[in-house]
Design goal:
By secondary structure, this protein is an all-alpha fold. The protein is built from 25 helices and four strands. The strands form two sheets. The protein has a two-stranded parallel ribbon with strand order 1-2. Strands 3-4 form a two-stranded antiparallel sheet. A hairpin with a 2-residue loop joins β3 and β4.
Length: 590
């Protein structure tokens, strides 16, 4: 019994080496590219420019870059350290770091899986446009189609209310209804294309990191070639400079809005992928001595530079669209993902060989989406395999069949998004998972890793892997800056939370309630995990609470010898070491 407790104490001090028998990336560059591909996604192309557009253009860049330095880079570094050192997915990693908050790992898996069900719909839209791009003329550039209304304009004249590209997105591809109250029917074309998107995802990940690592060489690098080509072309369009001015010149009064700061933090979390568990899962396949800081800087900086590059590309198209419609850039009617499916296709008409540019653009969107989707699905697979590998292999016989089952389940859950009501379902899910939920998860992840597991222990883990601990900047961010900053942002996000809407349509109260149920589907695991931990640990309530914030207290291997002894003996040992544990907790949290 004493040897079992001694082993637990050694693990508490971080002296036990992590498990080594785990698949690794064929080359470390594959992880860097996979991390870049995950962070650089469709959100860089539509969410970032859209938030800039809503937040006064260049004014948004100020809180965005500040959040990158104070939150994005330190928290990405934190997740990569935990994943690489523990060599486990987020569920096991968070349970080992702080048993009381083990639900954070489950919540991160839940939110990643929820997002994967509707995020792949955006890839399906890109595939729909990609297939349509082979038509001559491009179908979204004319108003003489069966889906067009009398309000459609070929040139975007201000005497009309909609452009040809807007009507193609709304009435041809989506066939959207007037609100969430009218579900409409299934869009069979989108249904089949969504199935194709999931087939692509499956064949990219079914062999684990060995297959994903090969795909990212292309999917992570190709979008940059396309974005640069589009930027060169867009700057030559009439009115483009007006859009660029709107993007880079701040409206300083917007910085007084709390919503702008909350959106900047949420964009950092969403874009880099903090709190979703994917980066913990991906880094768990790293070699033990990998240079994590290099990967952290590469992923975070390239991600933000890509967002800014996309901003120039999209806002130059905004300027062109405002020129066509004869209205200021700030008065354009764009919202959500429709930004890249409405604003940008409008510019293809003025490009030489527009079909070629359209194919390149939408193929780029598919590549951007696939990388992010890989990681969101992989975190579910990694976590379940870590926990139930023998059971799952007993049921499915092979891991490939289990991956197929996960992809199939996500496909079925995404079907509401390819109905005629789908755009409203998509917007509702994205609104309630993309801001409050992810900030809520990030806050408790910081508590678990920075305060319960401890900054000193994190630095020691880093030193064990790379030979050098964390510098003073990261230690201060983890211990003081990030917990306080995220707590303040979370409070203001809750206080200033706005009901979901799509363009001018505001969701009814019952739909908002459904949105909160979607949000709770991930957040609820944190209190449930804490309750379960307190119930299963031995001892009195006080003893259980102390043990619940002791790293590795629930680790099966570290408690295996203890299970062979009488529970009262374990309680006695815990009680006799309470003072030492309390002192260690205080020291390692600093």
């Amino acid at each position: 019994m004493e040897s079992g407790f001694r082993r637990k104490a050694e693990m508490f001090q971080g002296e036990v080496k992590p498990q080594q028998s785990r698949a690794t990336w064929s080359r470390q560059l594959e992880f860097t590219l996979a991390g870049m591909g995950y962070a650089v996604g469709l959100g860089n192309v539509w969410r970032f420019p859209y938030l800039c557009y809503r937040s006064g253009g260049g004014a948004f860049l100020v809180p965005y870059l500040l959040m990158l330095v104070l939150l994005g880079i330190p928290l990405l570094y934190l997740e990569l350290i935990i994943g690489q050192y523990m060599r486990k997915g987020p569920v096991h990693a968070l349970a080992n770091a702080c048993p009381l908050l083990k639900g954070v790992g489950v919540a991160s898996v839940a939110i990643s899986f929820i997002m994967s069900t509707y995020y792949n719909v955006v890839i399906a839209w890109a595939l729909y446009y990609l297939f349509s791009s082979f038509q001559n003329p491009l179908p979204w550039l004319g108003c003489n189609n069966t889906w067009n209304t009398p309000n459609c304009s070929n040139n975007g004249s201000s005497n009309y209310t909609t452009t040809a590209s807007q009507e193609f997105f709304r009435y041809e591809m989506l066939e959207q209804t007037e609100g969430v109250e009218d579900a409409g029917g299934l869009r069979w074309q989108l249904f089949l294309i969504l199935g194709l998107a999931w087939i692509l995802i499956y064949f990219c990940i079914f062999k684990g990191v060995k297959s994903t690592g090969k795909v990212v060489y292309f999917t992570a690098l190709f979008p940059y070639v396309t974005l640069i080509a589009f930027l060169i072309n867009n700057t030559q369009l009439p009115g483009a400079i007006d859009g660029i001015y709107f993007f880079i010149i701040p409206e300083w009064d917007k910085l007084l809005s709390v919503e702008v700061w909350v959106n900047a933090a949420a964009q950092i979390f969403n874009s880099i992928g903090i709190g979703f568990g994917s980066l913990i899962a991906m880094s768990s396949y790293n070699s033990f001595n990998n240079n994590i800081l290099k990967d952290t800087l590469a992923i975070s900086i390239i991600n933000s530079l890509t967002s800014i590059l996309s901003g120039f590309v999209i806002f130059s198209a905004f300027g062109y669209m405002s020129h066509l419609q004869g209205i200021p850039v700030k008065d354009l009617a764009v919202d959500g993902p429709g930004l890249v499916y409405i604003v940008y296709p409008q510019a293809f008409g003025n490009m030489p060989v527009p079909q070629l540019w359209a194919v390149l653009f939408f193929f780029m969107l598919v590549c951007l989406g696939l990388d992010s989707e890989f990681a969101m699905v992989e975190v579910m697979i990694t976590s379940l395999m870590d926990q139930y590998e023998q059971l799952l292999l007993g049921i499915f016989k092979r891991k490939e069949l289990f991956v197929l089952a996960v992809c199939g389940a996500a496909f079925l859950l995404g079907i509401p998004c390819v109905m005629q009501v789908g755009i409203y379902v998509f917007q509702l899910m994205d609104h309630y998972t993309g801001i409050v939920s992810v900030i809520f998860l990030a806050f408790f992840e910081i508590l678990a890793l920075c305060w319960a597991y401890g900054v000193t222990r994190l630095s020691n883990n880093l030193e064990a892997m790379t030979g050098r601990g964390a510098n003073i900047f990261f230690r201060l961010c983890w211990w003081i800056v990030d917990p306080i900053l995220v707590a303040v942002i979370l409070v203001f996000a809750i206080i200033g939370f706005n009901p979901a809407r799509y363009e001018e349509y505001v969701f009814p109260p019952w739909a908002q309630g459904v949105g909160w149920v979607i949000a709770l589907a991930s957040m609820i695991w944190i209190p449930l995990g804490a309750l379960h931990t307190v119930c299963v640990l031995p001892g009195s309530i006080v003893q259980r609470l102390k043990l619940s914030v002791t790293p590795y207290a629930l680790d099966e291997k570290s408690t295996e010898s203890g299970r062979n002894h009488d529970k009262s003996t374990i309680i006695s040992t815990i009680s006799s070491n309470e003072q030492q544990t309390e002192k260690s907790l205080f020291q390692t949290s600093l």
